[in-house]
Amino acid sequence: DKGGWSSFMAKEISEQPDAIGNTLRGRLVDGHVDIPELTELGEPRLREVDRIIIIACGTASYAGMIGAYAIEQWARVPVQVELSHEFRYRDPVLTDRTMVISVSQSGETMDTLMAVKYAIERGVTTVSVCNTQSATIPRESDAAVYTHAGPEVAVASTKAFVAQITALYLIGLHLGRVRGTLAADAEAEAVRQFETLPEKMAEAVATHEQIAQLAHWMADTRSVLFLGRHVGYPAALEGALKLKEIAYIHAEGFAAGELKHGPIALIDHGQPVFVLVPSPRTSPLMHAKVVSNIQEIRARGARVIAIVEKGDTAVLPYTDDVVRLPLSDALFDPILQVVPLQWFALELSTAKGLDVDQPRNLAKSVTVE
Ligand code: F6R
Protein backbone atom coordinates (compact mmCIF):
# COMPACT_ATOMS: atom_id res chain seq x y z
CA ASP A 1 0.00 0.00 0.00
CA LYS A 2 1.56 3.26 -1.15
CA GLY A 3 -0.64 5.32 1.17
CA GLY A 4 -1.69 7.74 -1.56
CA TRP A 5 1.85 8.31 -2.84
CA SER A 6 2.84 7.61 -6.46
CA SER A 7 5.65 5.25 -5.39
CA PHE A 8 6.90 3.35 -2.37
CA MET A 9 10.03 5.47 -2.47
CA ALA A 10 7.99 8.68 -2.10
CA LYS A 11 6.05 7.13 0.76
CA GLU A 12 9.24 5.99 2.47
CA ILE A 13 10.93 9.41 2.10
CA SER A 14 7.86 10.97 3.72
CA GLU A 15 8.01 8.44 6.57
CA GLN A 16 11.47 9.55 7.70
CA PRO A 17 10.36 11.62 10.71
CA ASP A 18 8.63 8.50 12.08
CA ALA A 19 11.50 6.23 11.10
CA ILE A 20 13.89 8.29 13.22
CA GLY A 21 11.37 8.46 16.06
CA ASN A 22 11.11 4.66 15.98
CA THR A 23 14.88 4.17 16.04
CA LEU A 24 15.09 6.45 19.08
CA ARG A 25 12.10 4.96 20.92
CA GLY A 26 12.98 3.61 24.35
CA ARG A 27 16.68 4.42 23.88
CA LEU A 28 16.73 7.93 25.38
CA VAL A 29 16.31 7.41 29.10
CA ASP A 30 16.57 10.28 31.63
CA GLY A 31 18.85 12.30 29.35
CA HIS A 32 21.10 9.32 28.58
CA VAL A 33 21.33 6.88 25.73
CA ASP A 34 20.81 3.31 26.76
CA ILE A 35 20.87 0.37 24.36
CA PRO A 36 20.08 -2.80 26.34
CA GLU A 37 21.44 -5.00 23.53
CA LEU A 38 24.89 -3.45 24.07
CA THR A 39 24.62 -3.63 27.86
CA GLU A 40 24.15 -7.39 27.47
CA LEU A 41 27.62 -7.65 25.93
CA GLY A 42 29.01 -6.66 29.32
CA GLU A 43 30.54 -3.30 30.22
CA PRO A 44 34.13 -4.59 30.52
CA ARG A 45 33.94 -5.81 26.92
CA LEU A 46 32.70 -2.41 25.72
CA ARG A 47 35.41 -0.61 27.69
CA GLU A 48 38.19 -2.77 26.27
CA VAL A 49 37.34 -2.17 22.62
CA ASP A 50 40.35 -0.44 21.04
CA ARG A 51 39.20 -0.30 17.42
CA ILE A 52 35.92 -0.39 15.55
CA ILE A 53 35.53 -1.46 11.95
CA ILE A 54 32.20 -0.67 10.29
CA ILE A 55 31.39 -2.95 7.36
CA ALA A 56 28.57 -2.40 4.89
CA CYS A 57 27.77 -1.95 1.20
CA GLY A 58 26.24 0.87 -0.83
CA THR A 59 23.99 3.26 1.02
CA ALA A 60 24.60 1.44 4.30
CA SER A 61 28.35 2.11 3.90
CA TYR A 62 27.65 5.85 3.62
CA ALA A 63 25.60 5.66 6.82
CA GLY A 64 28.66 3.91 8.29
CA MET A 65 31.00 6.71 7.14
CA ILE A 66 28.75 9.30 8.79
CA GLY A 67 28.44 7.21 11.94
CA ALA A 68 32.21 6.90 12.20
CA TYR A 69 32.62 10.65 12.81
CA ALA A 70 30.16 10.54 15.70
CA ILE A 71 31.48 7.35 17.29
CA GLU A 72 35.07 8.66 17.25
CA GLN A 73 33.98 12.01 18.66
CA TRP A 74 31.94 10.56 21.52
CA ALA A 75 33.60 7.22 22.31
CA ARG A 76 37.20 8.18 21.40
CA VAL A 77 37.83 4.86 19.64
CA PRO A 78 39.45 4.81 16.21
CA VAL A 79 36.81 3.81 13.66
CA GLN A 80 37.41 2.72 10.10
CA VAL A 81 34.76 2.01 7.52
CA GLU A 82 35.20 -0.65 4.94
CA LEU A 83 33.12 -2.13 2.16
CA SER A 84 32.17 -5.66 3.22
CA HIS A 85 33.49 -7.24 0.02
CA GLU A 86 36.92 -5.60 0.44
CA PHE A 87 37.30 -6.35 4.15
CA ARG A 88 37.96 -10.08 3.92
CA TYR A 89 40.51 -10.03 1.17
CA ARG A 90 43.27 -8.03 2.80
CA ASP A 91 44.00 -10.06 5.95
CA PRO A 92 42.82 -7.30 8.33
CA VAL A 93 44.42 -6.95 11.77
CA LEU A 94 41.73 -8.20 14.17
CA THR A 95 42.04 -8.91 17.89
CA ASP A 96 39.65 -9.76 20.72
CA ARG A 97 39.51 -6.00 21.40
CA THR A 98 38.26 -5.20 17.91
CA MET A 99 34.55 -4.54 17.42
CA VAL A 100 33.01 -5.02 13.99
CA ILE A 101 29.73 -3.17 13.43
CA SER A 102 27.88 -4.32 10.33
CA VAL A 103 25.19 -2.10 8.81
CA SER A 104 22.54 -3.71 6.63
CA GLN A 105 18.92 -2.81 6.01
CA SER A 106 17.96 -6.30 4.85
CA GLY A 107 20.31 -8.24 7.10
CA GLU A 108 20.75 -10.66 4.19
CA THR A 109 23.36 -8.95 1.97
CA MET A 110 25.73 -11.81 1.19
CA ASP A 111 28.88 -9.65 1.00
CA THR A 112 28.19 -8.31 4.48
CA LEU A 113 27.14 -11.67 5.91
CA MET A 114 30.38 -13.30 4.71
CA ALA A 115 32.41 -10.44 6.21
CA VAL A 116 30.58 -10.84 9.55
CA LYS A 117 31.24 -14.60 9.53
CA TYR A 118 34.92 -13.93 8.81
CA ALA A 119 35.04 -11.56 11.82
CA ILE A 120 33.28 -14.08 14.08
CA GLU A 121 35.80 -16.78 13.15
CA ARG A 122 38.55 -14.44 14.33
CA GLY A 123 37.01 -13.88 17.74
CA VAL A 124 35.92 -10.31 17.14
CA THR A 125 32.86 -8.79 18.90
CA THR A 126 30.18 -8.30 16.25
CA VAL A 127 27.30 -5.83 16.44
CA SER A 128 24.63 -5.71 13.73
CA VAL A 129 22.71 -2.56 12.83
CA CYS A 130 19.76 -3.98 10.92
CA ASN A 131 16.24 -3.05 9.89
CA THR A 132 14.83 -6.55 9.41
CA GLN A 133 13.84 -8.48 12.50
CA SER A 134 15.50 -11.91 12.79
CA ALA A 135 17.43 -11.61 9.51
CA THR A 136 20.57 -13.73 9.14
CA ILE A 137 23.19 -11.07 9.96
CA PRO A 138 21.66 -9.97 13.31
CA ARG A 139 21.11 -13.63 14.25
CA GLU A 140 24.77 -14.46 13.62
CA SER A 141 26.07 -11.39 15.50
CA ASP A 142 26.83 -11.01 19.22
CA ALA A 143 24.42 -8.09 19.50
CA ALA A 144 21.66 -6.72 17.24
CA VAL A 145 20.64 -3.06 17.32
CA TYR A 146 17.48 -2.86 15.21
CA THR A 147 16.62 0.38 13.44
CA HIS A 148 12.83 -0.23 13.52
CA ALA A 149 12.32 2.04 10.47
CA GLY A 150 9.56 -0.25 9.19
CA PRO A 151 9.62 -2.31 5.98
CA GLU A 152 11.39 -0.63 3.07
CA VAL A 153 9.91 -1.72 -0.26
CA ALA A 154 11.50 0.62 -2.83
CA VAL A 155 14.86 -0.67 -4.06
CA ALA A 156 16.50 2.68 -3.33
CA SER A 157 17.12 2.96 0.39
CA THR A 158 15.86 6.14 2.09
CA LYS A 159 14.28 5.83 5.51
CA ALA A 160 16.56 2.91 6.39
CA PHE A 161 19.56 5.18 5.71
CA VAL A 162 18.57 7.91 8.17
CA ALA A 163 17.62 5.24 10.71
CA GLN A 164 21.06 3.60 10.30
CA ILE A 165 22.81 6.90 10.99
CA THR A 166 20.59 7.41 14.03
CA ALA A 167 21.37 3.91 15.37
CA LEU A 168 25.12 4.39 14.86
CA TYR A 169 24.98 7.72 16.73
CA LEU A 170 23.13 6.01 19.59
CA ILE A 171 25.84 3.34 19.68
CA GLY A 172 28.49 6.09 19.81
CA LEU A 173 26.72 7.79 22.71
CA HIS A 174 26.22 4.51 24.59
CA LEU A 175 29.89 3.57 24.16
CA GLY A 176 30.99 7.07 25.15
CA ARG A 177 28.99 6.91 28.38
CA VAL A 178 30.24 3.44 29.32
CA ARG A 179 33.84 4.31 28.48
CA GLY A 180 33.71 7.64 30.33
CA THR A 181 34.71 9.65 27.24
CA LEU A 182 31.43 11.48 26.76
CA ALA A 183 31.26 14.87 28.47
CA ALA A 184 27.93 15.59 30.21
CA ASP A 185 27.28 18.69 28.08
CA ALA A 186 28.03 16.81 24.85
CA GLU A 187 25.59 14.09 25.89
CA ALA A 188 22.90 16.63 26.82
CA GLU A 189 23.39 18.43 23.49
CA ALA A 190 23.15 15.20 21.47
CA VAL A 191 19.98 14.18 23.31
CA ARG A 192 18.53 17.63 22.61
CA GLN A 193 19.40 17.27 18.92
CA PHE A 194 17.67 13.90 18.79
CA GLU A 195 14.55 15.20 20.49
CA THR A 196 14.08 17.89 17.84
CA LEU A 197 15.21 15.76 14.89
CA PRO A 198 11.86 14.20 13.85
CA GLU A 199 10.30 17.69 13.71
CA LYS A 200 13.19 19.07 11.64
CA MET A 201 12.97 16.00 9.45
CA ALA A 202 9.37 16.87 8.65
CA GLU A 203 10.59 20.28 7.41
CA ALA A 204 13.21 18.56 5.24
CA VAL A 205 10.49 16.32 3.77
CA ALA A 206 8.49 19.47 2.96
CA THR A 207 11.16 20.56 0.43
CA HIS A 208 9.48 18.15 -2.03
CA GLU A 209 7.58 20.76 -4.02
CA GLN A 210 10.60 23.00 -4.49
CA ILE A 211 12.78 20.07 -5.54
CA ALA A 212 10.13 18.82 -7.99
CA GLN A 213 10.28 22.18 -9.78
CA LEU A 214 14.06 22.11 -9.82
CA ALA A 215 14.10 18.58 -11.26
CA HIS A 216 11.61 19.61 -13.94
CA TRP A 217 14.04 21.86 -15.83
CA MET A 218 16.86 19.37 -15.32
CA ALA A 219 15.18 16.36 -16.94
CA ASP A 220 17.78 16.31 -19.76
CA THR A 221 20.80 16.65 -17.50
CA ARG A 222 23.59 14.19 -18.33
CA SER A 223 25.74 14.58 -15.21
CA VAL A 224 25.35 15.97 -11.70
CA LEU A 225 28.01 16.53 -9.05
CA PHE A 226 27.56 16.63 -5.28
CA LEU A 227 29.94 18.30 -2.83
CA GLY A 228 30.17 18.03 0.93
CA ARG A 229 32.72 18.32 3.72
CA HIS A 230 33.17 16.21 6.88
CA VAL A 231 29.86 14.34 7.43
CA GLY A 232 28.49 16.15 4.37
CA TYR A 233 30.94 14.19 2.20
CA PRO A 234 29.30 10.75 2.62
CA ALA A 235 25.92 12.49 2.30
CA ALA A 236 27.13 13.82 -1.09
CA LEU A 237 28.15 10.28 -2.08
CA GLU A 238 24.66 9.10 -1.13
CA GLY A 239 23.01 11.84 -3.23
CA ALA A 240 25.08 10.71 -6.22
CA LEU A 241 24.26 7.02 -5.67
CA LYS A 242 20.52 7.71 -5.51
CA LEU A 243 20.67 9.54 -8.84
CA LYS A 244 22.63 6.77 -10.56
CA GLU A 245 20.34 4.08 -9.20
CA ILE A 246 16.93 5.37 -10.09
CA ALA A 247 17.46 8.12 -12.70
CA TYR A 248 20.37 6.42 -14.54
CA ILE A 249 22.27 9.70 -14.60
CA HIS A 250 26.00 9.91 -14.20
CA ALA A 251 26.67 11.45 -10.82
CA GLU A 252 29.64 11.77 -8.51
CA GLY A 253 30.08 12.92 -4.95
CA PHE A 254 33.27 14.65 -3.83
CA ALA A 255 34.78 15.94 -0.64
CA ALA A 256 34.60 19.70 -1.30
CA GLY A 257 38.27 20.21 -0.41
CA GLU A 258 39.34 17.56 -2.91
CA LEU A 259 37.95 19.43 -5.87
CA LYS A 260 41.08 21.49 -6.49
CA HIS A 261 43.14 18.28 -6.59
CA GLY A 262 41.61 17.21 -9.87
CA PRO A 263 37.83 17.05 -10.25
CA ILE A 264 37.46 20.82 -10.69
CA ALA A 265 38.57 20.19 -14.28
CA LEU A 266 35.11 18.66 -14.82
CA ILE A 267 33.39 21.97 -14.12
CA ASP A 268 32.15 23.49 -17.32
CA HIS A 269 29.48 26.03 -18.17
CA GLY A 270 26.10 24.93 -16.79
CA GLN A 271 27.37 21.87 -14.88
CA PRO A 272 24.87 21.30 -12.05
CA VAL A 273 26.53 20.95 -8.65
CA PHE A 274 24.68 20.34 -5.39
CA VAL A 275 26.60 21.70 -2.42
CA LEU A 276 25.82 20.67 1.15
CA VAL A 277 26.57 23.77 3.21
CA PRO A 278 27.10 23.32 6.96
CA SER A 279 25.44 25.62 9.46
CA PRO A 280 27.29 28.98 9.69
CA ARG A 281 26.31 29.28 13.36
CA THR A 282 27.56 25.96 14.66
CA SER A 283 30.25 25.18 12.06
CA PRO A 284 31.63 28.62 11.06
CA LEU A 285 35.04 27.37 9.88
CA MET A 286 33.67 24.61 7.69
CA HIS A 287 30.98 26.96 6.45
CA ALA A 288 33.57 29.49 5.31
CA LYS A 289 35.55 26.81 3.48
CA VAL A 290 32.46 25.51 1.69
CA VAL A 291 31.48 29.04 0.65
CA SER A 292 34.92 29.48 -0.89
CA ASN A 293 34.54 26.12 -2.69
CA ILE A 294 31.26 27.42 -4.10
CA GLN A 295 32.98 30.59 -5.32
CA GLU A 296 35.64 28.49 -7.07
CA ILE A 297 33.15 26.39 -9.01
CA ARG A 298 30.83 29.30 -9.71
CA ALA A 299 33.71 31.22 -11.28
CA ARG A 300 34.11 28.28 -13.69
CA GLY A 301 30.48 28.27 -14.76
CA ALA A 302 28.87 25.71 -12.43
CA ARG A 303 25.16 25.92 -11.78
CA VAL A 304 25.12 25.79 -7.97
CA ILE A 305 22.25 24.34 -6.00
CA ALA A 306 23.06 25.00 -2.35
CA ILE A 307 21.45 23.18 0.55
CA VAL A 308 21.77 25.62 3.44
CA GLU A 309 20.57 26.46 6.90
CA LYS A 310 17.59 28.81 6.95
CA GLY A 311 18.94 32.33 7.38
CA ASP A 312 22.34 31.63 5.78
CA THR A 313 22.72 34.60 3.44
CA ALA A 314 26.49 34.31 2.86
CA VAL A 315 26.02 31.83 0.02
CA LEU A 316 23.25 33.69 -1.81
CA PRO A 317 25.46 35.80 -4.16
CA TYR A 318 27.06 32.61 -5.54
CA THR A 319 24.11 30.28 -5.98
CA ASP A 320 21.44 29.67 -8.59
CA ASP A 321 19.08 27.78 -6.33
CA VAL A 322 18.88 27.56 -2.55
CA VAL A 323 17.16 24.85 -0.54
CA ARG A 324 16.66 25.92 3.08
CA LEU A 325 16.68 23.49 6.00
CA PRO A 326 16.57 23.76 9.79
CA LEU A 327 20.21 22.74 10.32
CA SER A 328 22.09 23.30 13.58
CA ASP A 329 24.86 20.88 14.46
CA ALA A 330 27.52 19.58 12.10
CA LEU A 331 27.01 15.94 13.09
CA PHE A 332 23.24 16.09 12.63
CA ASP A 333 23.11 18.20 9.44
CA PRO A 334 23.56 15.39 6.87
CA ILE A 335 20.54 13.49 8.19
CA LEU A 336 18.46 16.44 6.99
CA GLN A 337 20.54 17.42 3.96
CA VAL A 338 20.13 14.03 2.31
CA VAL A 339 16.33 14.39 2.08
CA PRO A 340 16.20 16.95 -0.78
CA LEU A 341 18.77 14.78 -2.59
CA GLN A 342 16.42 11.78 -2.27
CA TRP A 343 13.54 13.84 -3.65
CA PHE A 344 15.75 15.07 -6.48
CA ALA A 345 16.59 11.53 -7.61
CA LEU A 346 12.95 10.51 -7.35
CA GLU A 347 11.72 13.50 -9.34
CA LEU A 348 14.33 13.15 -12.09
CA SER A 349 13.50 9.45 -12.39
CA THR A 350 9.81 10.34 -12.66
CA ALA A 351 10.52 13.09 -15.20
CA LYS A 352 12.34 10.51 -17.35
CA GLY A 353 9.36 8.17 -17.13
CA LEU A 354 11.27 5.48 -15.22
CA ASP A 355 10.05 3.02 -12.61
CA VAL A 356 11.16 4.71 -9.40
CA ASP A 357 10.68 1.68 -7.18
CA GLN A 358 12.14 -0.99 -9.47
CA PRO A 359 15.24 0.36 -11.23
CA ARG A 360 16.79 -1.83 -13.91
CA ASN A 361 19.50 -4.35 -12.97
CA LEU A 362 18.96 -3.97 -9.21
CA ALA A 363 17.37 -6.10 -6.50
CA LYS A 364 16.31 -4.96 -3.04
CA SER A 365 18.50 -7.49 -1.35
CA VAL A 366 21.75 -8.67 -2.94
CA THR A 367 22.09 -12.30 -1.84
CA VAL A 368 25.02 -13.23 -4.06
CA GLU A 369 28.67 -12.35 -3.51
C1 F6R B 1 21.00 1.94 -2.35
C2 F6R B 1 20.81 0.60 -1.88
C3 F6R B 1 22.00 -0.33 -1.80
C4 F6R B 1 22.00 -1.00 -0.43
C5 F6R B 1 23.11 -2.06 -0.35
C6 F6R B 1 23.17 -2.70 1.03
O1 F6R B 1 19.81 2.65 -2.39
O2 F6R B 1 19.73 0.22 -1.55
O3 F6R B 1 23.20 0.35 -2.02
O4 F6R B 1 22.18 -0.02 0.55
O5 F6R B 1 22.88 -3.06 -1.32
O6 F6R B 1 21.96 -3.32 1.36
P1 F6R B 1 21.66 -3.73 2.84
O7 F6R B 1 21.57 -2.51 3.66
O8 F6R B 1 20.36 -4.49 2.80
O9 F6R B 1 22.80 -4.61 3.29
From TrEMBL:
Subcellular localization(s) per the UniProt record: Cytoplasm
Coiled coil spans: none
GO CC terms of this entry: cytosol
MF-aspect GO terms: carbohydrate derivative binding; glutamine-fructose-6-phosphate transaminase (isomerizing) activity
Enzyme Commission numbers on file: 2.6.1.16
Residue intervals of the SIS domain: 42-181, 214-359
Catalytic activity, as annotated: D-fructose 6-phosphate + L-glutamine = D-glucosamine 6-phosphate + L-glutamate
GO biological process, one term: UDP-N-acetylglucosamine metabolic process
Keywords for this protein: Aminotransferase, Cytoplasm, Glutamine amidotransferase, Repeat, Transferase
Record-annotated active site: 364 (for fru-6p isomerization activity)
Subunit structure: Homodimer.
Biological role stated in the UniProt entry: Catalyzes the first step in hexosamine metabolism, converting fructose-6P into glucosamine-6P using glutamine as a nitrogen source.
Designated name of the protein: Glutamine--fructose-6-phosphate aminotransferase [isomerizing]
Gene name as annotated: glmS
Residues of the full protein shown: 248 to 616 of 616
